[in-house]
Design a protein that fits this description.
TPR-like_helical_dom_sf; 284 residues; Tetratricopeptide repeat protein; elongated; single chain
Length: 284
């Protein structure tokens, strides 16, 4: 009676599509399918929210048990990249890219591993080896970064624009593009891009901080109207103060530092130290 209940339960679970009457083969296949789904879900978790070092350990064990699984090898390479282990990731992605089953995305990931290892020349060479028909967000994001490193601003702008149009979450690449403009002293262009980034992701603090620097470089010493916590407000005031001081507007910078200290919900050591140092310099 209990065995019948198990078979009926599997039927209603939707795994045995062709009917329970065919026997054990359907049940075996259903269990294999269920195991595959569970494995894929666990792999996704490991590559997104799990501790990066745990993910490396998990895929290392999985590869030892299944040395012929190219998908496991690819996941291990991604795990190394996520864990900040760029040389290990590069070695694996290079082997994947040169394998018969290799994908263009393996070359893209290899280029990213080289960039994270600060090997820009090798990254550029890898990107140049990818067919131009492989048009993905990740590929153009990396192309933009390489063009930036080469100070080829026209090409960088083109690649950043293409990349931002290939994703529904462009905040990060818009922030990078804005920072590129910031380093070129195109402060108005940078300000616009940081505002655009925050429109897509109002919580992206790096874009808020960069926006304050872009405005400060134009001597705009009022905080932008963006979503911010009290702690973020204090930190942005601190950034604005340092920007003002660097520009020679010392009195404005001192006032902003004082406001940052008063705004922070806890003791703001960095702003306090900067304020003391500034007051000591003025007294001397």
């Amino acid at each position: 009676m209990r065995q019948s209940s198990v078979v009926i339960a599997l039927c209603f679970a939707g795994f045995v599509l062709s009917g329970c009457g065919r026997g054990g083969n359907d049940v075996d296949q259903a269990l294999k399918d269920m195991t595959a789904v569970d494995e894929n879900n666990l792999s996704d978790v490991m590559l997104t929210v799990a501790d990066p070092r745990e993910a490396v350990s998990y895929f290392t064990r999985a590869l030892a048990e299944n040395p012929g699984r190219i998908d496991v090898r690819r996941n291990l390479a991604k795990a190394h990249l996520r864990a900040g282990q760029a040389p290990e990731a590069a070695k694996l992605f290079e082997a994947l890219a040169n394998a018969p089953e290799g994908l263009a995305d393996d070359r893209v990931n290899l280029a990213e591993a080289h960039i994270r290892a600060n090997d820009w020349k090798r990254a550029e060479a890898v990107l140049n080896s990818i067919p131009p028909t492989h048009e993905t967000f990740q590929r153009y994001r990396l192309e933009a970064m390489v063009a930036d490193a080469n100070k080829n601003w026209k090409k960088a702008d083109s690649f950043y624009e293409i990349a931002s149009g290939l994703t529904d979450r462009p905040a990060g690449v818009l922030n990078n593009w804005g920072y590129s403009k910031l380093t070129r002293a195109d402060y108005k262009g940078a300000e616009k891009l940081f505002v655009d980034a925050l429109r897509y992701d109002p919580k992206l603090f790096t874009a808020k901080n960069n926006l304050v620097m872009a405005r400060g470089a134009q001597r705009k010493y009022d905080l932008p109207v963006v979503e911010m916590t009290q702690t973020e407000r204090a930190e942005l005031l601190h950034t604005m103060a340092l920007t003002a001081i660097k520009a020679g507007d010392v009195r404005t910078g001192r006032g902003l530092l004082q406001e940052a200290v008063e705004t922070h919900p806890q003791h703001f050591d960095a702003a306090s130290r900067a304020l003391r140092a500034l007051e000591g310099t003025v007294k001397q």
